[in-house]
Design a protein that fits this description.
Length: 165
């Protein structure tokens, strides 16, 4: 999902112009392509990014922002019809395709890992021939693979003045 202000910046137009094209072409923007955020969603988004709350509560905007899906962002490129919009739409398609492939690869790997775990558990239950040590090694390998599949959390330096302990 991309917010209208972010998409407008990518396409090199004002948010007002982008939303104007959405209003003028309602057939091209069904609800599964673009939708307007509610006050609650905007509040959650604002707290997620830790932005300051303005007096109006919408960052100086008169209307709630629109959120564009992959297809909505591409349709916006079609109605804006500029060289920059075409260039960015190609980039967006590639980014979404890459994201989809990454998610599919992790999903396939997770399914295969679960199947392997079920087979080793069944084998351990069925046969006493599989020693406890071998079973523990299988579990260790499966857990290591799961840790590799999870996204890494990079530690960040604290912001501001930090006193030594």
């Amino acid at each position: 999902m991309l917010l209208d202000s972010d998409l407008a910046e990518l396409y090199g137009v004002t948010t007002k112009r982008l939303n104007e094209q959405v209003r003028r072409n309602p057939v091209r923007f069904p609800p599964d392509f673009v939708f307007q955020l509610t006050d609650q969603e905007l509040g959650r988004l604002r707290s997620q990014f830790a932005t300051s709350k303005t007096a109006v509560g919408r960052g100086g905007r008169r209307y709630l922002p629109h959120a564009f899906t992959e297809h909505g962002s591409l349709m916006a490129a079609n109605v804006l019809n500029s060289a920059r919009a075409v260039e960015v739409s190609v980039y967006i398609v590639r980014a979404f395709v890459s994201l989809r492939q990454t998610l599919a690869a992790h999903r396939d790997l997770a399914l295969k890992l679960e199947a392997l775990e079920r087979r080793t558990e069944a084998l351990a239950m069925k046969h006493d021939a599989l020693s406890k040590e071998t079973h523990a090694q299988f579990k260790e390998v499966i857990e290591a693979l799961r840790r590799l599949m999870s996204p890494s959390v990079q530690s960040r330096r604290p912001i501001g003045f930090v006193t030594p302990k």
